[in-house]
Design brief:
By secondary structure, this protein is α/β, with parallel strands linked by helices. It has one domain: NAD(P)-binding Rossmann-like Domain (Rossmann fold). It contains 9 helices and 7 strands; from the N terminus they run H-E-H-E-H-E-H-E-H-E-H-E-H-H-H-E. Helix 4 runs parallel beside helix 5 and helix 5 runs parallel beside helix 6. The longest helix has 30 residues.
């Protein structure tokens, strides 16, 4: 690697990152963007096979790890593994998310509500706690949470999911206050992106949705991954507590 690249604020050379929910979609795109900038990346998934397969697509310096986002023991093991394997942990991307609670809020049962909140809100707390206590609290680091434009909007049938993401946006601000100056905590808020989680929002409506978006297309996972890499890098060194909307202008409509 050239000396100029080593001093590039966008470079993540010699940095180590964990990305949760990274077997596909935004998580995999984020892991790929970090890896392209020189980071060594641990990709997590509920399935060890899926995690290893995703890591294999990135090549050397990437490895998969089986960990359900809400499993505190698995989170601890993953953080310990990353530090033991690579000697440090600089970046945590809390990307794992779910939305089993589709429909009116008053029709949801507690199980769907609890699962949504556990994965979308509690898991980022667990992983951030582990990362900070094991390494970042002493040595510094960057945490990036995957929120959603849903955290700013009101849409029928997505109430529980949107509430969880609104809470994650506010959690990001609290963590930024509590963990500075050593640890920066920011979030991204994607619009409708071509992922399996958001498939119901675009599969049958992509042309209409694109036509109503100022940039005239729905998002691709790579659009989000690049912003994650920016927030993880020294180029964002004076940013914390922020939520960056990446939506092609969808919130403008």
């Amino acid at each position: 690697m050239s000396p100029d690249r080593l001093h590039d604020p966008d470079s993540l050379h010699d940095k180590v990152a964990i990305v949760t929910g990274a077997s596909r979609g935004i998580g995999l795109a984020a892991a790929a963007a970090l890896h392209r900038r020189g980071a060594r990346v641990v990709l997590t998934s509920r399935s060890e096979e899926a995690a290893m397969e995703a890591a294999a697509t990135l090549g050397e310096g990437a490895i998969g790890w089986a960990a359900h986002a809400t499993d505190q023991d698995a989170a601890c093991s993953c953080v310990e593994f990353a530090i033991h394997r690579y000697g440090r942990l600089d970046v945590l991307v809390n990307n794992a998310g779910t939305n089993p609670a589709y429909g009116p809020i008053i029709d949801q049962d507690h199980a769907r509500f609890a699962k949504t909140m556990d994965v979308n809100l509690w898991a980022p707390i667990v992983w951030t706690s582990m990362a900070v206590k094991a390494w970042m609290g002493e040595h510094g680091g960057a945490v990036i949470n995957t929120a959603s434009v849903g955290g700013f909007t009101v849409v029928e049938n997505l109430g529980v999911y949107h509430v969880s993401k609104a809470a994650l946006i506010h959690l990001t601000r609290h963590l930024a206050l509590e963990l500075g100056p050593k640890v920066r905590v920011n979030a991204i808020a994607p619009g409708v992106v071509r992922t399996r989680l958001a498939e119901a929002l675009w599969r049958e409506h992509e042309e209409r949705l694109a036509a109503s978006t100022p940039l005239r297309r729905i998002g691709e996972p790579e659009d989000i991954g690049e912003v994650v890499a920016f927030l993880a890098s020294d180029a964002a060194r004076w940013m914390t507590g922020e939520t960056m909307v990446v939506d092609g202008g969808q919130l403008l409509i």
